[in-house]
Write a structure and sequence with these properties.
Layout lengths: L1 H13 L6 H5 L1 E10 L5 E11 L4 E16 L11 E17 L11 E20 L3 E21 L4 E12 L6 E13 L8
Antiparallel strand pairs: 1-2, 1-8, 2-3, 3-4, 4-5, 5-6, 6-7, 7-8
Length: about 200
């Protein structure tokens, strides 16, 4: 506990006492709905923050919390099996760069800003299987994760944007690799005004 206090105190002393207004100008917060394939498909929410370096590049942090509860009702009719329920919960902590491209050639939506992103971090998966008359089995694991994807921001105003992104998410639970599809639909708010990328 003493070492945690020492680390926190060191960080507080190292940080500047006044916050730079330009940093807040480049700050973005986002949130929305997330779907991650695998484990019967997991749905939940995502939240994130990003720091813009210029109008083309930002570094983004995303947190996903997705879950699914399923009852295997087909087996409930069998006298020797009974009702089986499966509950899965997965959390992702991802950080990485997001690169925006030219949008002046997009004829359908002039406010569409396409981007590509690469993120890496960690994931936590918790699974609970319950069978009537047998009991409950629980398994959990933490693993390294990376994501390669892209999407687009549709500018709704100088500060608000609708965001859609899709990516290949690679997890490594139980000492083996899994490929998942991650889809996000949400909104983003940037403190500074978003200019059209030219």
């Amino acid at each position: 506990m003493k070492s945690i206090r020492t680390i926190l105190l060191s960080l507080i002393v190292a940080l500047p006492l006044h916050l730079n207004a330009q940093m807040f100008h480049n700050l973005e917060f986002s949130g929305g709905w997330a779907h991650v394939s695998g484990n019967n498909g997991l749905d939940g929410f995502t939240g994130g923050a990003a720091l813009w370096f210029n109008n083309r590049v930002s570094i983004a942090f995303d947190f996903d919390h997705a879950r699914d509860d399923n009852a295997l009702t087909t087996f409930a009719l069998q006298s020797n099996t009974g009702l089986i329920t499966v509950k899965n919960r997965m959390e992702d902590y991802l950080i990485g760069p997001r690169f925006f491209f030219h949008s002046k050639n997009v004829q359908v939506l002039h406010t569409l800003h396409p981007f590509a992103e690469f993120q890496f971090g960690a994931s936590h998966l918790n699974s609970v299987v319950t069978q009537v008359g047998v009991g409950t089995q629980t398994a959990a694991d933490n693993a390294g994760t990376w994501l390669l994807g892209g999407g687009g921001d549709i500018l709704l105003s100088p500060h608000w944007a609708g965001r859609i992104n899709v990516g290949l998410q690679r997890t490594h639970f139980a000492d083996s690799a899994q490929s998942r599809l991650r889809m996000v639909m949400g909104v983003a708010y940037t403190f500074g005004s978003r200019k059209v990328v030219k």
